Amino acid sequence: MADNIARVFADAIAPDPTRPLLTWYDDATGERTELSGATLANWVAKTANLLVDEVAVGPGDTAGVLLPPHWQTAAVLLGCWSAGLRVADTPGDVEVLFAAVTRLAEADAWSAGERYVLALDPFALPMRQVPPGFADYVSEVRAHGDHFTPYAAGGEELVEHARRRAGELGIARDDRVLVDTGAHPDPVDWLLAPLAAGASSVLCANLDRSRVESRAATEKVTQTLT
User: Residue 216 and residue 221: Cα distance in Å, rounded?
Assistant: First the structure.
């Protein structure tokens, strides 16, 4: 049984890396992005390599993440955990900070040696204007390797929490879970619980509830969390 997040992620995609693992909708913009396990794994590996090779961090270090639920947030979080970092949920001293461009005002409360900004562009395009004191995550991460060997230790409590939460939410293996990210903003709910259960996710931001039924049919959803 997997005892850390990197192994949980690897186990989730192992049966078929080509199947949709995470599908992202934003009903405010009309955005839809679908990532297979292999595609998300590529982003995760690049993020972990960025952290290890460029930021020079690893097990025992801490990242701050000021990002909403999003497929790029999944890559950042899984990349951090693969590199052995802890992810802080309250402002403080961290080695690296990832912040959405809409949350830069909050970044002043964090002390970080390296800072990356995410525009969360639908097509993952580089930012045209990067805020002072930040590097553009998308531009920087693309230069890094597609493969990463995760660190083996750490995260056992988080894994157990994710498994418990999957049980509480009724998520089972091979489920296709539609998640209202507004109702479930905690990454344990929208990211880790489905992965720990061996399920795939349809993440919906700004969910238009009139579309739930048709979307569930289109995406072959078996469980709905709204």
Answer: 5
